[in-house]
Amino acid sequence: MTTAESKPAQPRRQFRLLFLCLLVIGAGNSMLLAVAPPLVRQLGLSDSSVGWIFSLSALLWVFCSPYWGRTSDRVGRKPIAALGLAAYAVSMGSFGIVVVLGLNGLLAGVWLFALLMLARAIFGAFGSATSPAAQAYVADRTSRTERTEQLAGLSAAFAVGQAFGPGVAAALLGFGLIVPIVLVTILAAGTSFAVWRFLPETTPPQTEQRRSDWKESLALATDRRLSGYLIYGFGLSVISGITVQVFGLFTMDRLEVSGAQGAEYAAAGFMANALAFLATQLGILPRLKMLPRALMAWGAGLFAIGVLIQIAAPSLGALMTALAVQGVGGGLARAGYAGGSSIAVRPDEQGAAAGLVVGINGAGFVFSPLLGGVVYENAGMNAPLYVTIAILMAMLIFTLRSRRLRSVTPVEQSAEPPEQPQ
After folding, report:
1. Residue in 63, 387, 406 with CA at minimum distance from that of residue 235
2. What is the residue extent of each domain of the chain?
3. Alpha carbons 109 and 130: distance in angstroms, whole number
4. Which CATH architecture is the domain 14-199+215-410 placed in?
5. Cα angle vertex 154, ends 149, 158, to 5°?
């Protein structure tokens, strides 16, 4: 059976397992983001270390995601998705072990910081396999006209995890800051096994096509069909990295709280953000029927409004409102960016394109420690948010004026390329 043949006829039931997998990843990341600021302070590390701990992982994510996307074109989506989830379990488990050693005084200073970075780096190097494989799996089984909505549904899975992850973390904080990390480790291992055992892969790997390499990925990244979306996605990644890395610190300092209470307040904010993102993906987006470029423009504008509200917010309720508005903006922006990237390329390029998209999603986190944590420590709590607004305005202008994005309409309306003879 060819990819083209399987697209419109495949039932959507197989997406549910991928939905669950991305839900676990989203929940784990949001839990970690909620507990990281109080954890680093309890471990005696600087505030900016929150961002730096994630930076090596983000750098590896950038370079490894395209590789895993291309590999899924050759060996299939299923084994690559399962590998990524298994690596995620190893990464979270290792991170938890290092934290326990630090809290008990067995590790401190540079060694503690370095091992936390290395534990998280496992996720960047190998955990990055799941997202491009999952996106390509969906792209294999959807037509171009429905792909934006289906990929938005996959993003919604991540948002569901982000929404409920902080709430679960807050409920578990009474047992210690380490307990949410242990829970995510178990869930990631379980979903990895479930993908390997139960995910159907009726569309075979495209073994008859020649193997792609790094040069071909670079060529696709600079291709005018895709490059505009990657530029926008890089900006979205940077501002996402800044906002999530400083929000916990911002909340503790603005509301003058610390420890478990700070983690609970940060978790409430992340939950509001993720629920708004989810409502946008599942409720608002299907009714808008906008083209990707319009979604990207509205997303950047609304995200900027949410950041302005955060700067002025005097209370927890106002901070939750700010993150909810940012969630709506992020939901529109990511749907437009992911959907536009997919419909801009050919079916045989879906894995490589998904790898580039996922890689760019992590690229901003390489730079966000400088623009977030370091700026926060040296220029004040509002300074990173002003940087974020400037980037969002640049993204909005780029979206409205870029010819690369305007030229996508003829591509997405073009016919599918003819099938290769079997």
Report:
1. 387
2. 14-199+215-410
3. 33
4. Up-down Bundle (1.20)
5. 135
pLDDT in tens, 35-79: 777 788 888 888 778 778 888 888 888 788 778 878 888 888 889
Contacts by 65-68, CB closer than 8 A, 24 or more apart: 65/128, 65/129, 65/131, 65/132, 65/355, 65/356, 65/358, 65/359, 65/361, 65/362, 66/132, 66/214, 66/217, 66/352, 66/355, 66/356, 66/359, 67/355, 68/128, 68/129, 68/132, 68/133, 68/355
Q: Which two tokens stand for residue 370?
A: 């400088």
Tens of pLDDT, residues 87-139: 999 999 999 999 999 988 898 888 999 999 999 999 989 988 888 888 888 77
Give dist(CA 71, CA 78) in Å, integer: 11
Task: Show the tokens assigned to 175.
Answer: 């047992």
343 within 8 A of 148, measured Cβ to Cβ? yes
Q: Which residues of the chain have pLDDT under 50?
A: 1-11, 207-212, 407-422
Token pair belonging to 20: 């669950």
Residue 26, class by beta-carbon neighbours within 10 Å (0-12 exposed, 13-18 middle, 19+ buried)? buried
**The model's pTM:** 0.68
> Which pair of structure tokens corresponds to residue 157?
């899975």
- Dist. CA 254–CA 243, nearest whole Å: 15
